[in-house]
Amino acid sequence: MKSRIHPVYAEMERTVFDRMSALAREHGAINLGQGFPDGPPPPALIEAAARALQEKSSQYPPGAGLAELREAICAYYARRQGLALAPEQVTVTSGATEALAAAVSALVQPGDEVILFQPAYDAYAPTVRRAGGVPVSIPLSPPHFRYTAEALAAAITPATRLLMFNDPLNPAGTVASHAELETIARACVEHDLVAVCDEVWEDVRFDGVAHRSLAAVPGMAERTVKIGSAGKIFGLTGWKIGWMIAQGELATALQRAHQFLTYATAVPLQWAVAEGLALPDAVLADQRAEWNAARERLRNGLAAAGFVVLPNAATWFLNVDLGASGISLCDSEFSERAVAEAGVATVPVSALYQGEAAPRHLVRFCFTKPAEVLDEAVFRLARFRERLLG
Fold first, then answer.
1. Backbone phi, then psi, for 34, in 5-degree steps?
2. What span, in angstroms and rounded, lies between the C-alpha atoms of 267 and 258?
3. For every residue of the chain, which 3-state class applies, written as one string?
4. Residues 6+ apart with CB under 8 A from 68
5. Residue environment code for 64-97, b if the CB has 16+ CB neighbours within 10 A, otherwise e
6. Tens digit of pLDDT per residue, the chain (390 long)?
7. Class of domain 43-279 as given by CATH
8. Does the domain at residues 7-41+282-389 carry the CATH identifier 3.30.413.10?
9. Rounded to two decimals, what is the model's pTM?
10. Which residues of 173-198 are buried (b: 16+ CB within 10 A; e: fewer)?
């Protein structure tokens, strides 16, 4: 008898982030697994949201988003990335995950092949499958996770329609070079592919280099869906305010898909994000400095405890190479034991790969936590490593 449950969801396991956070609660552990900051957000955004609740309408906004927010998004990208965008290209969504779902729903038809670089946010593959598409994985190799023309050429077939590209890359914390962006753009133009660009970490960078969107590479503006997130820009993950940006028929299709997913997103928070995007760049710089200090604190602490930390230029995450750290456990076993025996929750990076090509020696740590929390986590992990090494 045919199952009443769609096979994508019938066969789906619990997301690794939810599972590790549940284990953290069960064991009373420090949660360095799920990615969110513990520090306060910029006060101006909280004040703006409170003011909007008192002074602005709380009824349905336009489905594509408040005009003021769409204009603010365009102005923000003009200032920060030099992009010339128009408000009609922007659709506000209930977080970047909804934007990804809308983009796939609008652009993927049954049988279409979709390139996914691995590791990848674990929503990508099931979202593609639910639309009837076929995920095609290109595994990226640590520690640098580089994109190559050879791997792209080997993966693209006549059925390839879409490419999903996350830059900066979670969980690696790496940033694509200009040469890599141009390699991906050439493949998209040559094979008439649309690129869905998950750029939520675009302003969480610590290398002093401005983000360059794939949409800015010649030939890509008309074939790119650029996805952003206020949750990542401001450290307000629970607000779930995201957006997607495209041109022409792509923008129209995205808005049609969005209207039958959430239609609209919390309007007071839209007002607040519109104000937040207009804040002086110094506000973001101060927040980035705090995150960078936490990054350095955890990196240095782990290194002093004998862990080998991979290079990192962006995101809220550091990755540890277990094998190079003298630990023979695979990543999933390490994470399971660390949360129970050391009281620290992490994420095994293999959970963010599809298929057999996953490395089994990398573990991800979120560093956007208070100094005392990071220090205690390092202390516990150091003792745990000592026990493992005997």
1. -70, 140
2. 16
3. CCCCCCHHHHCCCCCHHHHHHHHHHHHCCEECCCCCCCCCCCHHHHHHHHHHHHHCCCCCCCCCCCHHHHHHHHHHHHHHHCCCCCHHHEEEECCHHHHHHHHHHHHCCCCCEEEEEECCCCCHHHHHHHCCCEEEEEECCCCCCCCCHHHHHHHCCCCEEEEEEECCECCCCECCCHHHHHHHHHHHHHHCCEEEEECCCCCCECCCCCCCCHHHCCCCHHHEEEEEEHHHHHCCHHHCCEEEECCHHHHHHHHHHHHCCCCCCCHHHHHHHHHHHCCCHHHHHHHHHHHHHHHHHHHHHHHHCCCEECCCCECCEEEEECCCCCCCCCHHHHHHHHHHHHCEECEEHHHHCCCCCCCCCEEEEECCCCHHHHHHHHHHHHHHHHHHHC
4. 270, 271, 274
5. bbbebbbbbbbebbeebbebebebebbbbbbbbb
6. 788 898 888 888 888 888 989 999 999 999 999 888 988 888 999 999 999 999 999 999 999 999 999 999 999 999 999 999 999 999 999 999 999 999 999 999 999 999 999 999 999 999 999 999 999 999 999 999 999 999 999 999 999 999 999 999 999 999 999 999 999 999 999 999 999 999 999 999 999 999 999 999 999 999 999 999 999 999 999 999 999 999 999 999 999 999 999 999 999 999 999 999 999 998 889 999 999 999 999 999 999 999 999 999 999 999 999 999 999 999 999 999 999 999 999 999 999 998 777 899 999 999 999 999 999 999 999 999 999 998
7. alpha beta
8. no
9. 0.95
10. bbbbeeebbbbbbbbbeebebbbbbb
**Domain residue limits, the chain:** 7-41+282-389, 43-279
Structure-block tokens of residue 71: 């204009």
